[in-house]
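ok, trying the design again with the full structure, not the truncated one.
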């Protein structure tokens, strides 16, 4: 352990910042692992997990506070922090998607048990699918389920603001992942995960991609959940795609899922069920995000009109508007 780490440990102890104290201990564990001292690193990780479990004794399940953590230093302004209360139950998911996401939550929640048996939880997740199908909401739901902060970095803006320095900025992000347990969402992941050798490739993108490949091989000492989301899975480099523990694919909802989502979003304002037949032909091809926007629009109108329910005509008009928008900006919805 370096003098700097010892000073940081003592400072966090004096300040009563137990989370920072444990994060530094995990840094030491990661350093030991990189030096080949795997047994010592695992022992440190188990002790940290025991300390964290001790801190939640007597607290009802699901009520543990989300640790307050924010990006520091040069990461400020590059990473957005949030503390979601979203859960998987608040999402309309297929049985297969719910099963796979619940498995990730279970592994993360019982990661100490897995480590006792020489296993580690899934930590690198790739979400792929069309815009508006629930990828970003999934990141929020996993953070909410695990009572962890959600850090979001939009990689496209990182490139545009710091072109030539992107690899260095990402290294700062990777260092935070090694220090602070959280859910990290790398949105628009195809911005850095494009295939090497692409005719439009440039040296900076290759350096960034190599940095990400190296990072994904590093031990995840904090068991942070790193989520990459993309609308263009076909653009990802094969070597990068293989490094994810789970690849979860999203698609547009079928009529049943779309109806369920609309009913849930409309809540007490939903129109009578007997008039629902007029709505169903307008659901085809709309994403979850587009359905939510249509529902919210008519609910706002109903509230301002002091109406108890939305009218079926207003709902159909809102869905037609979303269909027109889809046709205008996504003329080939079947091409994913």
């Amino acid at each position: 352990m370096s003098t700097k780490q010892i000073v940081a440990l003592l400072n966090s102890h004096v300040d009563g910042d137990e989370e920072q104290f444990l994060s530094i201990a995990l840094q030491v564990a990661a350093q030991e692992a990189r030096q080949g001292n795997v047994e010592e690193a695992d022992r440190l990780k188990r002790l940290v997990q025991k300390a964290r479990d001790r801190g939640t004794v007597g607290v009802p399940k699901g009520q543990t506070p989300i640790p307050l953590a924010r990006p520091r230093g040069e990461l400020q302004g590059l990473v957005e922090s949030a503390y979601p209360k979203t859960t998987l139950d608040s999402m309309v998911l297929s049985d297969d998607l719910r099963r796979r996401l619940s498995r990730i939550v279970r592994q993360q929640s019982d990661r100490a048990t897995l480590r006792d048996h020489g296993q580690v939880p899934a930590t690198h997740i790739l979400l792929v699918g069309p815009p508006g199908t629930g990828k970003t909401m999934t990141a929020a739901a996993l953070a909410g389920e695990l009572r962890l902060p959600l850090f979001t970095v939009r990689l496209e803006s990182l490139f545009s603001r710091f072109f030539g320095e992107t690899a260095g900025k990402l290294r700062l992000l990777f260092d935070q992942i090694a220090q602070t347990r959280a859910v990290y969402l790398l949105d628009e992941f195809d911005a850095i995960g494009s295939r090497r050798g692409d005719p439009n490739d440039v040296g900076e993108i290759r350096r960034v991609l190599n940095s990400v490949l190296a990072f994904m091989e590093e031990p995840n000492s904090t068991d942070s959940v790193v989520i990459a989301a993309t609308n263009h899975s076909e653009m990802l480099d094969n070597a990068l795609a293989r490094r994810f523990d789970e690849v979860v694919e999203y698609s547009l909802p079928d009529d049943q899922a779309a109806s369920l989502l609309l009913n849930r979003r409309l809540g007490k304002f939903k129109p009578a069920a007997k008039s629902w037949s007029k709505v169903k032909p307008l659901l085809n091809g709309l994403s979850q995000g587009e359905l939510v926007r249509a529902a919210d629009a008519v609910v706002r109108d109903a509230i301002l009109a002091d109406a108890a329910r939305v009218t079926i005509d207003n709902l159909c008009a809102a869905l037609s508007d979303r269909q027109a928008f889809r046709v205008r900006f996504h003329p080939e919805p079947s091409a994913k």
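Keeping the full-length input from now on. The chain has three domains: 3-55, 73-249, 255-329.
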